[in-house]
Amino acid sequence: MRFAKAHACGNDFLIVEGACDSELAKKLCERHTGIGADGVEFLETTGMLMGRIRLANADGSIAEISGNGTRCVAAWVAHTEKAASGDVITLETDAGKRACRIVGAQGNHFQIAAGMGVPEVSQTQVTLADKTIVHGVHVSMGNPHFVIIVHDENFRAHSRGWQELGREICFHKQFPQQINVLFVRMIRADEIEIRIFERGVGPTSSSGTGTCASAAAVLLHCGGRSPMTVLAPGGSQNVDWGGLGMEMTLTGPARLVAEGEVLLD
């Protein structure tokens, strides 16, 4: 079976043409016995510079959308269709259509501005097993996020490390479909730093929708200013948002890593 691999700020995806297959995704994403990735984007081409994608996470669960994964697919389509700067690739996801504009291309490196839909933002809270109440911001980017504002350089909150706290919230009974958990530290009005516990993956180096959700929370509740730079362990991305009711744009890199053939049992 043919595949391609790409990453956006270290958030890596396999791109496979055909219908979504959760069990296949689990095998392919295995770091030691498969190819290795955070998820598989299953692509069905529907026209010139157009396609339908479905994302299966590394654990086989289905996600509505990945901002980074969508950009990775756009980069692959741009490569195979020889798209140029200014061209727009339209991808249908489980969260709706996303238009990805090629900002720049050099070899297998692409810079892409993707329309990410209209964020839905509300304040929320969750009660942990030890009765600690964690206040956060719920942001839907077509998929759900629980955003926690922190002031600690190590992203600790409620006397716990972000990985431990992120895991408990992600799998909390309040979220039967699980939830992405973001820890956000404000650097300046137009710059934030994040850590990500992603459902279906765990701690990860970057997240496109998580970047957008974090920016939305800070812009609405912490006096943030757009356009905003969002720093993650895998690199930086830029968010541009005019406010409630308006579509958010995420701009960042996508790099094609490999294409080849995987041997299936």
Structural class: alpha+beta
Question: Are there runs of 5+ residues with pLDDT below 50, and where?
Answer: none
- Rg measurement, Å: 18 Å
From the 3D structure, determine the CATH topology of the largest domain: Diaminopimelate Epimerase, Chain A, domain 1
Largest sheet: 8 strands, mixed, barrel
Shape: globular
Oligomer: single chain
CATH architectural designation of the largest domain: Roll
Helix percentage range: 10-25%
At the fourth CATH level, what is the homologous superfamily of the largest domain?
Diaminopimelate Epimerase, Chain A, domain 1
Q: Total number of β-strand segments?
A: 17
Instruction: Quote the beta fraction.
Output: over 45%
Q: Give me the number of helical elements.
A: 4
Task: Name the features.
single chain, 265 residues, alpha+beta, Diaminopimelate Epimerase, Chain A, domain 1, 2 domains, 8-stranded mixed β-barrel, 4 helices, 47% strand, globular
Molecular structure report:
- The protein has 265 residues and is an alpha+beta fold.
- It folds into two domains: 2-116 and 252-261, Diaminopimelate Epimerase, Chain A, domain 1 (Roll); 120-246, Diaminopimelate Epimerase, Chain A, domain 1, CATH 3.10.310.
- The protein contains four helices and 17 strands.
- An eight-stranded mixed beta barrel has the order 1-2-3-4-6-7-8-17.
- The radius of gyration is 18 Å and the shape is globular.
Set down the secondary structure blueprint.
Blueprint: E1 2-8, E2 11-17, H1 22-29, E3 39-47, E4 50-57, E5 62-63, H2 67-81, E6 88-93, E7 96-106, E8 109-115, E9 120-127, E10 133-140, E11 144-150, H3 162-170, E12 180-188, E13 191-198, E14 202-204, H4 208-221, E15 228-232, E16 235-240, E17 249-261
Parallel strand pairs: 2-3, 4-6, 11-12, 13-15
Antiparallel strand pairs: 1-2, 1-17, 3-4, 4-5, 6-7, 7-8, 8-17, 9-10, 10-11, 12-13, 13-14, 15-16, 16-17
